[in-house]
Amino acid sequence: MSVDSRLLRPTAPGRRAVDRTIFGLCILAGILALAPLGAVIYFLIVDGLSAWSPAFLVELPGPITTPGGGALHAIIGTLMMTGLSLVIATPMGLAVAILIVEERTSRIAPLVRTAVDLLAGVPSIVVGIFVYTLVVLSTRHFSGFAGSVALAIIMLPIIARTSEEMLKIIPRSLREGTMALGMARWRALTFVFIPTIASGILTGIALAVSRAIGETAPLLFTALGSNFVQTDFSEPMNALPLYIFQNAINIGFPAAKQRAWAAALTLVVIVLLFNLIGRWLASRATVRGARS
Amino acid sequence: MTVLPTTLRPDEPERLVRRRGLSIGDPILAWLVRILSLAALIAVVIMLVQTAVDAGTLFRHENIVEFLTGLRWEPSNLIYGALPFIYGTLMTSIIALVFAVPLSIGVALLIMEYLPHRLSGPVAVAVDLLAAVPSIVYGFWGILYLVPAARPIEQAIASSPLGVIPIFSGPAPGPSYFVAGLVLTIMILPIITAVTREAIAATPRLQREGAMALGATHWEQIRHVILPFARGGIFAGIILGLSRAIGETIAVLFVIGNAPHLAASIFAPGYTLPSVIAAEFREANQPFHIEALIALGVVLFVLSFGVNVMARIVVGRFERRAGGADVR
User: Does the residue B298 lie in any domain?
Assistant: First the structure.
């Protein structure tokens, strides 16, 4: 008896052609998806580098028609507001994570969880409106503080979520170890658990900074922007994204366009730096013996 | 989700050991955590209530149905109609999904299925980096390069026979719902891709190997094993992308043309909810203008909240089904 020859024949050409076509389409999708990244990076380097100089980091901008000038006030504003928002969001994010994971019996835990999840889904422009009604209207003043609150609201869910995930994967053996030693809960948390997951928490912080530092929408009507170096949180402040925005809406002026490119390059470099730091930390943030 | 082998609740052994209150540090920690969390909770509640109250002021001037269905937005005549912006938000989001969904699935398959390991890692990181570029940079780049690049395409389609259909009709001045949709495509692509990749990674191996043993081609494995398993995850990714598209402000503001009208053609300039808020908030000087913009913010919040709830339901259903189907 001979084997039915149909069983041994190669894959039908039609099926193979479909297979190849799909492979081609996937390659095409990859090229189309990466093209904009390439284009953005290309123009950032070409237009951005030609407009950028070290003086950009330490000078103030002149009048809108004068070429040159820097973004010192915006860089200081960005650093100060991002710093303050970290000071607000990090303890809160950690507290929320600890409440959800360690105090499971707490009745407010689900409420807090819902509120933070809600914040994570709020569009950033709406965060701006929230802070406008909460801070700006009640202090009757646009301020760097209001901008920091807005950025903190954007950071909070990111920090809370990553810390929560990390706390959850603390190995059971480690928990039991602290119990066997009769360690008080707060000692176990501050001296064992948090150091164990520190790189995970830092990942969350780095990603939160990389997200918040590039946000324009929540700053538009909270920090407002200013034209000189402002170190007083109760006054309007500038920030790099706002600086790009102000110059980009005046691209009719070559000087403004130049400054916008230089600032865009600076901002992207800062954001990517924090993003890569976050990724690098995340790659190291595996708790030993975690998957029990 | 790992299932603990004991019947004890996870925190029970800890409570047995630590019930005695060995240290005053414990109550301090517990209260610190509670106070900080409550502060976050209360801030969220106050913000929601305060914003709703501020938006409510508008409805003393104009009734809510008129606001939501009004076609005209003329602050100087004290006429505030939100429909052009709701339409613009939905239109740009739909355009973005039309482009981003097939692209993202293709990219996810490329990374997970086709590329050798050495290449797939860098490609995945590059796609993720698309999400890291600040939206202001996309906006600025968009108005300088994307709008001029898209204009001939728009005009070609508008003057071709397709232009007879109202949604493709001209004139096509450049900035439009279409270009805004393109920018949004770039911005939501990494989200949908990331979620799709996770869904693909969760496909059980047994089924794949079964399909392979039956002589299925690579595409047939994808078509009959991977895609059915990953469907829920892909859908969740799409909804997450939609939620991002609805809320995107600055990038859209630069490329949509800023016209407070409702236009049938996707090549016409328009406005979205977030972009009109960003554009007019600081210059709002007419009576009720700020309140109307805050009310637009509430509409936007409700829209994105609805989408997020939908995402939660879909993800929940998907997880349950995957839990039942997972035979490893």
Answer: yes
Write out pLDDT tens, residues A20-59: 999 999 999 999 999 999 999 999 999 999 988 888 888 8
Q: Which domain holds residue B112?
A: 77-325
**How much is the pLDDT for A252?**
86
Chain B contact probe: residue of A130, A149, A170, A274 with most B CBs at under 10 A: A130
Distance CA A193, CA A157 (A): 21
Residues 115-144 of A with CB under 8 A from B: 115-116, 118-119, 121-126, 128-134, 137
DSSP B82-138: -HHHHHHHHHHHHHHHHHHHHHHHHHHHIIIIIS-HHHHHHHHHHHHHHHHS-HHHH
For residue B255, which of B113, B328, B154, B323 has the smallest C-alpha distance?
B154
Looking at chain B from residue 151 to 170, which residues have their Cβ under 8 Å from any Cβ of chain A?
Answer: none
CATH code of B299's domain? 1.10.3720.10
Contact A26 B47 (CB under 8 A): no
Contacts A108 to B, Cβ<8 Å:
34, 37-38, 41
Q: Which residues of B touch A222 (CB under 8 A)?
A: none
Rg (CA), chain B: 25
Establish whether this prediction's ipTM goes over 0.85.
yes
Q: On the CB side of A46, how many CA atoms lie within 13 Å of its CA?
A: 7
Judge whether B126 and B310 are in contact, CB under 8 Å.
no
Evaluate whether residue B12 is within a structural domain. no
A window 174-203, beta carbon within 8 A of B: 175-176, 179, 182, 184-187, 189-190
Structural domain count, chain B: 1
In a domain, B53, yes or no: no
Residue of A33, A123, A190 with shortest CB distance to B304? A123
Interface test with A, best of B33, B192, B222 (most A CBs within 10 A): B33
Q: Does a structural domain hold residue B224?
A: yes
Element (H, E) at B247: helix B227-247
- pLDDT tens digits, residue range B189-232? 999 999 999 999 988 889 888 988 988 889 999 999 999 989 88
The answer, yes or no, to whether the previous bond of B171 is cis (omega within 30 of 0) is yes
Which CATH superfamily hosts domain A57-284? Answer: MetI-like (1.10.3720.10)
- Map tokens 């499971």 to a residue: A104
Contact yes or no for B40 and A112 at CB 8 A: yes
Which of chain B's residues have a Cβ under 8 Å away from the Cβ of A18? 217, 219
Torsion of CA B256, A154, B298, B78, to 10 degrees: -60
Question: CA of B164, closest CA in chain A: separation in Å?
Answer: 29
The per-residue pLDDT of chain B, averaged, comes to 88
